[in-house]
Design goal:
- By secondary structure, the chain is mainly α.
- It folds into two domains: 26-71, Arc Repressor Mutant, subunit A, CATH 1.10.10.60; 77-217, Tetracycline Repressor, domain 2 (Orthogonal Bundle), CATH 1.10.357.10.
- The protein is 68% helix and 0% strand.
- The radius of gyration is 26 Å and the shape is elongated.
Length: 233
């Protein structure tokens, strides 16, 4: 009787996976983890004191691996902030309240949602970091501005529809949406940036006051003050 063992069954590697390289989903997850760890480091210590060695240790990877993906600490910071801004935009849009109903109800829901987002500790910390680094990374201003415009466009569209329906006397919905934002959460954002803690009661009172003032100012039939003449000399 022959003692020769039968050949082991052939195990073919899937064509879309290269030898020794993790799947794309794994690489994406590792990158997200790295950016999260790096973000915590930058927020806690600031850019100057942030350590790539410490980030590598906390992320469970080598500095060589990090620098292969992000050649400099500058590039890593920029990636962190771009990822944060993108994520914040998606989170706000996903949590956006329904923009249907009476203006007072819609504006209150919208104002409360944005005000809560703007005053959350993580958003405040990241916003401070963006402000501190925007001079070195001017592109952050454009990224941040475009993101806020996307978020505000939801309100702009609603105000345009209400103006067309004759519910409010608004001739420039885009400007009006900016005005509402400053009324509803501009001061709250500023105060949280300065270290104040905003209670839910104060947040609610600020938004409700903003809604009342805004709708009174744009009420149909409300007296209009003439715009001051511009000195073009």
């Amino acid at each position: 009787m022959s003692t020769e063992k039968p050949p082991a069954p052939s195990r073919q590697r899937p064509a879309n996976i290269s030898p020794g390289r993790p799947p794309q989903a794994t690489l994406a997850a590792r990158t997200r983890h790295l950016l999260s760890v790096a973000g915590a480091e930058f927020v806690t210590r600031g850019f100057a004191e942030a350590s790539v060695s410490r980030i590598a240790r906390d992320a469970g990877m080598s500095k060589k691996t990090i620098y292969a993906r992000f050649p400099t600490k500058d590039a890593l910071l920029l990636a962190v902030l771009e990822d944060y801004i993108s994520g914040a935009r998606e989170a706000v849009l996903d949590g956006m309240p329904t923009m249907t109903g009476e203006p007072a109800q819609v504006l209150t829901r919208y104002g409360m949602q944005i005000a809560r987002d703007w005053t959350s500790p993580r958003v405040v910390a990241m916003y401070r970091l963006i402000i501190s680094e925007v001079v070195r990374f001017p592109q952050l201003a454009e990224i941040f501005t475009s993101t806020t415009e996307v978020i505000r466009s939801t309100l702009t569209t609603y105000l345009r529809e209400q103006a067309t329906a004759g519910t409010v006397a608004i001739t420039d919905p885009e400007a009006a949406s900016r005005q509402f934002g400053m009324l509803a959460y501009g001061e709250l954002r500023e105060r949280t940036m300065l270290g104040e803690t905003i209670t839910e009661e104060r947040l609610t009172a600020t938004v409700e006051r903003a809604v009342t003032l805004f709708l009174n100012g744009y009420a149909v039939g409300a007296p209009r003050q003439p715009s001051p003449a511009l000195d073009r000399t």
